[in-house]
């Protein structure tokens, strides 16, 4: 166990213990706090079935880099979300992580509650929904969140079984993010290290989301619609499904592809690219009879990086569409508000 324990001095009996605990106790109807107002529920006629979200084949990078860059750039501009196949990360590493993460959620509730906190900048966080004390309508998921910046590496993953695997998973995912960021830089017509340079000493957060079955799936949401506040998000999910991406007023299902990653552009890449790459809004639906698990790696800029449109992209015809902001300030703004909607729009100049 690490020396860090979030809840040493809090009265844990007054804190929400999470939706898994509710279901483990035999809940048959969701409590009022989880019932979304009609305006926030998923409406069937606004969901488009059967449209293919782009699939990026990493093997194509070797054979024709230019074409790969073009395909990636198109997916990031038109959608801001895509699935990645042939990424080279061993299936055993991914399955091992799923196994380890399930063990974390299966810990006795008293163990998990030692890490319960609404604080964002802590090395290890267990929480349910986003910031329960500020929300009128909670989300139907629990999560663990671990910071992986240099220094936190060893203490961050506190379950012995998973520690070594988590390190190798994080290095593999970091490598994948660097490869994608290089290609995304080239897609802007810039040197391949341009975006990475703007990120500075980048930070990775690993967040595991656990969505238990929900007795009233039409009334609740696993996660509200939101954009991710960081740079690039790399998500691994099981085969249950429920993640949706928004374009205009419509929501598109992401159909799980076995052992693929789902990658989405987040706010800081939209800003750096001056709006060329789109930070896509996404949400998660819940299922009546299945638990869903996702392991999400947020590849983010350093907190002291100042992020604004890259100067190389700005001229008279292309004025900056976003303000420059300290990344730390951006996340503080996001996390002190209820997560609902697209954050980068709030930074837009007009
Ligand atoms: C997130 C997120 C989606 C999922 O954690 O930001 O969008 O499928 N998760 O868990
Ligand atoms: Ni997200």
UniProtKB/TrEMBL annotation:
Q: Which GO terms fall under molecular function for this chain's record? A: metal ion binding; oxidoreductase activity
Keywords of this protein's UniProt record, alphabetized? Iron, Metal-binding, Oxidoreductase
Q: Which residues form the Fe2OG dioxygenase domain?
A: 201-301
Q: Report whether Metal-binding shows up as a keyword of the record.
A: yes
Q: Which family does it belong to?
A: Belongs to the iron/ascorbate-dependent oxidoreductase family.
Q: What is the official name of this protein in its record? A: 2-oxoglutarate-iron(II)-dependent oxygenase
């Amino acid at each position: 166990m690490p020396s860090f324990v979030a809840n040493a001095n809090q009265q844990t009996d007054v804190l929400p213990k999470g939706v898994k605990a509710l279901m483990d106790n035999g809940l048959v109807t969701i409590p009022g706090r989880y019932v979304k107002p009609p305006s926030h529920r998923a409406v069937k006629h606004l969901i488009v079935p059967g449209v293919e979200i782009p699939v990026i084949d990493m093997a194509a990078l070797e054979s024709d880099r230019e074409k790969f860059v073009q395909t990636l750039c198109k997916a990031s501009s038109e959608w801001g979300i895509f699935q990645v196949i042939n990424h080279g990360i061993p299936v055993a590493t991914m399955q091992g992580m799923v196994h380890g993460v399930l063990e974390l959620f299966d810990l006795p509730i008293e163990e998990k509650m030692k890490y319960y906190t609404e604080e964002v900048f802590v090395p290890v966080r267990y929480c349910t929904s986003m910031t329960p004390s500020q929300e009128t309508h909670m989300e139907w998921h629990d999560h663990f969140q671990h910071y992986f910046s240099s220094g936190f590496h060893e203490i961050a993953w506190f379950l012995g079984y998973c520690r070594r695997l988590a390190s190798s998973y994080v290095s593999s995912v970091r490598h994948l993010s660097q490869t994608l960021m290089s290609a995304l830089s080239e897609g802007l017509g810039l040197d391949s290290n341009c975006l990475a340079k703007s990120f500075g000493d980048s930070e990775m957060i690993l967040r595991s989301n656990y969505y238990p079955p929900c007795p009233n799936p039409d009334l609740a949401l696993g996660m509200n619609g939101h954009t991710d506040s960081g740079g690039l998000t790399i998500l691994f999910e099981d085969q249950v499904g429920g993640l949706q991406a928004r374009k205009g007023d419509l929501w598109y299902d992401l159909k799980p592809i076995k052992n693929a990653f789902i990658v989405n552009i987040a706010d800081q890449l939209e800003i750096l690219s001056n709006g060329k790459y789109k930070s896509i809004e996404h949400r998660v639906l819940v299922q009546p009879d299945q638990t869903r698990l996702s392991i999400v790696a947020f590849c983010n800029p350093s907190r002291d990086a100042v992020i604004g449109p890259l100067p190389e992209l700005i001229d008279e015809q292309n004025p900056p569409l976003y303000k420059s902001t300290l990344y730390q300030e951006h996340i503080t703004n996001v996390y002190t508000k209820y997560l609902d909607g697209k954050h980068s729009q709030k930074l837009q100049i007009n």
